[in-house]
TrEMBL record:
<keyword id="KW-0560">Oxidoreductase</keyword>
<dbReference type="Pfam" id="PF00171">
    <property type="entry name" value="Aldedh"/>
</dbReference>
<dbReference type="InterPro" id="IPR051020">
    <property type="entry name" value="ALDH-related_metabolic_enz"/>
</dbReference>
<protein>
    <submittedName>
        <fullName>Aldehyde dehydrogenase</fullName>
    </submittedName>
</protein>
<dbReference type="InterPro" id="IPR016161">
    <property type="entry name" value="Ald_DH/histidinol_DH"/>
</dbReference>
<dbReference type="InterPro" id="IPR016162">
    <property type="entry name" value="Ald_DH_N"/>
</dbReference>
<feature type="domain" description="Aldehyde dehydrogenase">
    <location>
        <begin position="16"/>
        <end position="473"/>
    </location>
</feature>
<dbReference type="GO" id="GO:0008911">
    <property type="term" value="F:lactaldehyde dehydrogenase (NAD+) activity"/>
</dbReference>
<dbReference type="InterPro" id="IPR016163">
    <property type="entry name" value="Ald_DH_C"/>
</dbReference>
<dbReference type="InterPro" id="IPR015590">
    <property type="entry name" value="Aldehyde_DH_dom"/>
</dbReference>
<comment type="similarity">
    <text>Belongs to the aldehyde dehydrogenase family.</text>
</comment>
Length: 483
């Protein structure tokens, strides 16, 4: 019997909106339509902004304890209905049920951290008397909500990365409009449901679904939008910055992440960590391991054992807890990565394992001897492919690691503290993980990169700082305490 296609609604100003025009949501594993969501128009975006302006007048006056209660209640709602959220992620994305369970737990944690950080939005005093003639002044810096936040989110973490934008926005006292990825909009709608159940006042949150090329420009260009938070590709991020005008932005734009393995490393740990970091979520992870540089003396052993562990990865049904890796987000994306692999192989790269595609499923793939000119060496592959090369020294590994225009995170395995600190200081990345692969993140840490990997930092505390404005307050006294 054919599965029933669910007609979903989007949230605008506290109202669930249905439209005649819709876009289809597909299960990447089968290509089947699982739902439709409204195809929003520019007028819908204008309505969302109209309501958000009114929502901001409410949110900025919400006492901190009420913001905290809403965030905690939303987290608890998700926790009570975790299976519902897990199934949504599995149905619309590449994630296996095991990966979906982890994401739901992280989303709950993200919202609870947001609640706790709401109580820590503070300022600092300013000693005005440091300058002659200002002895009668005392003052401080106060942080105020920025206004309306526009949040544009990706497909690879369709629930938690939305929470990373909504949570801090509400904690800071803002209104927020979310444009979720067209491929995975259902998880964002489910998250909005949690906030409605938690009693978030209407108008503070909108989730506008639709085609990005039609509704993103009216959103980011609008003067009432005061902050744009985007997670996605570099070219799109560059266009958003160009179009946004004079407003604050935060850009997390992906990477081509390296991990270095030196001859003194714990080899078993390095192999286990880099295999998981290379192929989790079918490689569709901005900090996933794309390049591994291994010292000459252990290269052959590392490569052999890495391939052996890769062969154990079970690719298959997303709903099976024994499955390690599901499909890519679409057959189109799987074809793109397959073409990048073929281009590298035709340019002298060696295909050590994998490379075969069936619809949206692509085998975990290991390449060596990849020329620097190959797309897969220069760009973010965002697929289950890893390049493993030998190096003579740490110096060579650092040079190769830094040669791409990206700089989100890197990893290094070594037992020598001096080598670790050299990597920390010389790797041009926003994060360096010692005795770990590049694929390490907790939701409280500052997360962001250098160069083409973006601007600013996510992580709840750091997002709240970005979503607030500093205001200087000074009192002039009749009498100076310093005279």
């Amino acid at each position: 019997m054919a599965k029933q296609i669910v007609s979903e609604r989007m949230l605008i100003g506290g109202n669930w909106i249905q439209k005649t025009e819709s876009i289809e949501v597909h299960d990447p594993a089968t290509g089947d339509i699982i739902a439709t969501v409204p195809a929003a128009s520019k007028e819908d975006v204008d309505q969302a902004i109209f309501h958000a302006k009114r929502g901001f007048e409410v949110s900025t006056r919400l006492p901190v304890h009420e913001r905290m209660r809403i965030l905690h209640d939303a987290a608890s709602y998700i926790e009570r209905n975790s299976g519902y959220y897990e199934d949504t992620i599995v149905s619309e994305s590449s994630k296996t049920i095991t990966e979906a369970r982890k994401e739901v737990k992280r989303c709950i944690e993200t919202l609870r951290i947001s609640a706790e950080e709401a109580r820590r939005i503070d300022g600092k005093t300013i000693p005005f008397s440091q300058m002659q003639g200002h002895e009668r002044r005392v003052g401080y810096v106060y942080r105020f909500p920025i206004g309306i936040v526009a949040a544009i989110t990706p497909f690879n973490d369709p629930l938690n990365l939305v929470a990373h934008k909504i949570g801090p926005a509400i904690a800071a006292g803002n209104a927020v409009i979310v444009k979720p990825a067209s491929l995975t909009p259902l998880s964002a709608i489910r998250l909005a449901e949690a906030f409605m159940h938690a009693g978030l006042p209407e108008n503070i949150l909108s989730v506008v679904t639709g085609v990005g090329s039609e509704i993103c420009d009216p959103l980011i260009e609008h003067e009432d939008i005061r902050f744009v938070s985007f997670t996605g590709g570099y070219e799109t991020g560059k266009e958003i910055i160009r179009k946004a005008g004079v407003k604050k932005t935060a850009m997390e734009l992906g990477s081509n992440s390296p991990t270095i393995v030196l001859e003194d490393a714990d080899l078993e740990e390095a192999i286990s960590s880099t295999v998981a970091g290379s192929f989790g979520v079918a490689g569709q992870n901005c900090i996933g391991v794309q390049r591994i540089y291994v010292e000459d003396s252990i290269y052959s052993t590392f490569l052999e054992r890495f391939i052996s562990e890769t062969k154990k990865i079970k690719v298959g049904s997303k709903t099976d807890p024994k499955t390690d890796m599901g499909p890519m987000i679409s057959e189109k994306e799987a074809v793109r990565v397959e073409q990048w692999i073929l281009e590298a192989v035709n340019s002298s790269a060696k295909l050590c394992y994998g490379g075969k595609r069936t619809n949206a499923f692509l085998e975990p793939t290991v390449l060596t001897n990849v020329p620097d000119t190959a797309l897969i060496a220069k760009q973010e592959v965002f697929g289950p492919v890893v390049i493993i090369e030998s190096v003579h020294s740490l110096k060579d590994a650092i040079k190769l690691s830094n040669q791409t225009p990206y700089g989100l995170q890197a990893g290094i395995f070594t037992s020598k503290i001096e080598e670790a600190f050299q990597a920390v200081h010389e790797l041009r990345f926003g994060g360096v993980m010692i005795n770990d692969s590049s694929d390490v993140r907790i939701d409280a840490m500052p997360f962001g990169g250098l160069k083409r990997s973006g601007i600013g930092r996510e992580g709840i505390q750091y997002a709240i700082e970005a979503m607030t404005e500093e205001k200087v307050v000074a009192f002039k006294l009749k009498n100076s305490p310093f005279v």
